[in-house]
Amino acid sequence: MSGRLSDRVEEVLRELGGTEPDDVRVEPTPPETVIYGRAGDATELTELLELLQNLGLHIVSVQRVPGPRPGEAPR
């Protein structure tokens, strides 16, 4: 995402993350901000992208970060 998030948007994203500390992570890396989050399936991803768009955020790219395989313990 290009630019910096307002404190209110960061708060909304953290609330969205739920109880797990790494469900949503916001990292300012000027001149942009990187948002890491978990989406269980395509529907959740679509809902998350719609939320970001409704918050007025300009999404530059979306990338999948490799995670544990089914049945494998998370690292």
Characterization of this structure:
The chain is α+β, with helices and mostly antiparallel strands and 75 residues long. Helices cover 31% and strands 16% of the residues. The protein has two helices and two strands, in the order αββα. The protein has a two-stranded antiparallel sheet. 3% of the residues are buried. The mean pLDDT is 75.
Provide tags for this entry.
75 residues, alpha+beta, two-stranded antiparallel ribbon, globular
Secondary structure layout:
Layout: H1 7-16, E1 24-29, E2 32-37, H2 42-54
Antiparallel strand pairs: 1-2
What can be said about this structure in brief?
This protein is α+β, with helices and mostly antiparallel strands. It has helices at residues 7-16, 42-54, and strands at 24-29, 32-37.
β-strand number: 2
- Contiguous helical run count: 2
Uncertain segments are none
> How are the strands of the biggest sheet laid out side by side?
1-2
Q: What is the arithmetic mean of pLDDT?
A: 75
The portion of residues forming beta strands comes to 15-25%
Order of helices and strands: HEEH
Radius of gyration: 13 Å
Biggest β-sheet, characterized?
A: 2 strands, antiparallel
Structural class: alpha+beta
Helix residue percentage: 25-40%
Distance between the termini: 27 Å
Large-scale geometry: globular
